[in-house]
């Protein structure tokens, strides 16, 4: 497939569990993969794609049950963090990606943490709004503030959609129609099954993965994120934390890259510069 820096390619890649919709800016530069959060879509990374294209081969995809990707053929298997991670890896393998830096937001960050154990071709990971938690409901609860109930709710009312968008993107952030449409489009089972798997005793110990990571791990959060427990995230014993600090961006919430790209993008660019 011919690729140029001027054109963003959209295509569909068939994986074991779903047909996956992909944006690819092409070129031979270092691939950077952007993984969206629960009930969102790849277009949420517009400000990052526009800034990075031409310097990097930027890839973004819709997870199974989200955006323009199909719903999962085997929902119980696909709609879990390991299931999502294996689907993402399958896409990267089919694209012939031999090394990649990943930015994962919220659920996307949890998928990135899973990839630490599964995909040695990932050479750097940045996470946002993603507490790395140990196994079991009590340990998961340590990483979050009370009140993430909608994250695992299958059926959304109109009020749920409105509240989810406001809490997730920030009350003062631009609520463009595509963000609302992405929530409405999401397969409700993707929320329910992902959340059940996350709380189950069979889940992955992401705290261990984050603390022991040999891959540089960058953590950038909005200081007003309503979902995450900042003390917990700061208190972990990271072996390879980028810049040896957790970044908290003032005045922004759960999606700082969307709400305030002028604050977020310079940090992402600096992280990626280390790989050029």
Question: How is this structure best described in words?
Answer:
The chain is of the alpha/beta class and 276 residues long. It has a single domain, classed as Rossmann fold (3-Layer(aba) Sandwich), CATH 3.40.50. The chain is 38% helix and 16% strand. Helix 6 crosses helix 7 (177-185). It is globular, with a radius of gyration of 17 Å. The chain starts with 8 loop residues before the first strand and ends with a helix. This is Epoxide hydrolase. GO terms for molecular function: hydrolase activity.
Q: Mean pLDDT, as a whole number? A: 95
Q: Kindly report the CATH topology.
A: Rossmann fold
Proportion of residues in helical segments: 25-40%
**How many structural domains in the coordinates?**
1
Distance between the termini: 24 Å
Radius of gyration, whole Å: 17 Å
CATH top level assignment: Alpha Beta
Shape annotation: globular
CATH-wise, what's the superfamily? Answer: Alpha/Beta hydrolase fold, catalytic domain
Order of helix and strand elements from N to C terminus: EEEHEHHEHEHHHHHEHEHH
Pfam families: Abhydrolase_6
Domain AB hydrolase-1: 32-265
GO molecular function: hydrolase activity
InterPro entries: AB_hydrolase_1, AB_hydrolase_fold, AB_hydrolase_sf
